[in-house]
Structure formats: C-alpha cells, structure tokens
Amino acid sequence: MKWTDERSGNVEDRRGSGSGGVIVGGGLGTLIIAAIVFFLGGDPSSILSSGNMGSGGAQTEQRELNSNELKIREFVQMVTAENEETWTKVFADNGLKYTPARVVLFESTTKSGCGTAQSAMGPFYCPVDQTVYMDMSFFKELEQRFGAKVTEFSIAYVLAHEMGHHVQNLLGTLGETDKVRTSGNYSEAQVNKVSVATELQADFYAGLWAKQTDNREHILEPGDIQSAIDAAEAVGDDNIQKRSQGYVNQESFTHGSSAQRKEWFMKGYNTGDIRQGDTFNQLLSN
C-alpha cells in the first residue's frame, strides 16, 4: 500500500500511557468475550456493560513507544485522513455532511463511551462517542490463529470496516438496528440476520472506500485487495466457528460467512457506489 502525505488529527494514541482499566472477571464473562474475539465491528455495549466485568484498578508503568509503534500511529493517522476525505466527498455528493470519527489506539484496556474496551474484543466502533477503538495486537492473532497474512492494507481494511459502522451511525442505520435488537419483538435468529446485514454493509463500505480512495490517490499495490479479502474471510463466522468449535451453525452467524464478507467487500470495491450497498433488503427479504 502506498502512503500519502495526509495525516488526521483525530487519532489518539493511548499506548504506553500507563492507564489502568476494568479487568475481565472469570467464568461466563470471559467465555463470552472469547467467543467474539476477531468479530469485527458492531456495538459492544451489551458485552461491555455485562455484570461479569469486574472493576479493577491495575496500573501499568508508562513507557516510551518504540519506532515501530510510532510508525503504526502515523499509518493509522494516514488511513484515518483518507477515510475522512473519501467519506466527506461521498456524503457531499449525496447532499449530506460528514462528521469524522475519532480513532483510539490502546493496549490491553481503556475506557470508551460504551464501557471498558479490551484487546480480547478486537477492533470495534462505539456509536456513543463516535470512536473506533483498536488494539494492534489483534493483527498478530489474526495472522497466527486465523491464517490471514497481515499487510498494511489488511490494517487499512479493518479500520475502513469500522469507519463503515461510523457511516451507518451517521445515516441512522445503527439506531434502527439497535431498535430491532432491544425491542423484544424478534427472535434470536432474526436479530442475528439483522446483525449480519449490518456487518456486511460495513464490509461493502470498506470496499467502496478502497475504490474511491485509490481513484483519488492511487494507494493500491499488487496484492492489496487480496490481503483485504484474506482478512475478511478469516473473520467469517463459518471460519471462526470451525476453528473454535469444530462445526458451523449458520443460524448463530452474526457477521456473515467468509464468502459473504468477500462478496460484499468486492461489491463495494467494484461499484464504488454507496447506493449499491443495501444488504438489508437483499438479505432480510429471503
């Protein structure tokens, strides 16, 4: 992936700050969090506010960031800036105003508007404070446990997916899906289908971002799109379930299969048109 000269001021780096946070308790709470490791995106507030989250105040010593960590910060600042520019244009083209999201880099635990963020949860977007939270150790696990080769564009894809949830928040999509989730009028299987449609739309938006940003900045290099597909497929529900429990239960999918995640990312990339991303109409009408 080619770097551009753009850098966003909306990235906060909390790594090395020595901040403590809530410690995960044992028992069922730990199992729930383990089950959603590597599930990209979504609103984690229901898990973050779980009664199994014990309150601890463990502090870590402050430390200086090394050169690789500083480079990662700069890379995230660049990708964030390119998301801001692309989505500002997309919104403007449709008569809307885009409000940028914030990005927080952290390690282990940190506070978020949705509760306590923990590295075991993977990257996520919190609609309460309109912020993406990322512990970069996620990418080591993505490579070592789920078989995806991690490149700079893999990281860019993950961040673009989370920014896709911010787009959904600004457009009111997340508010509508939350009503479905909390209404009590739908079965678990129906709620899961809505969740899948939400996540696949964020994949579509990530592909759209890649297309429009490349048209403007020519950021893509050979292999970049494939690395994004590899990451998307690695966190497909079927792949995660096979690796974690040895079998696949499609009714419990919350993020979509590996094939679906590839399909919708590529649809966003191939069309570059936000109007083609209605995953809800396509998936929920079946």
UniProtKB/TrEMBL annotation:
The chain crosses the membrane at residues 21-41. It is found in: Membrane. Keywords: Membrane, Transmembrane, Transmembrane helix. This is Neutral zinc metallopeptidase. It is a single-pass membrane protein. InterPro entries: Uncharacterised_pept_Zn_put. It comes from Chryseobacterium tagetis.
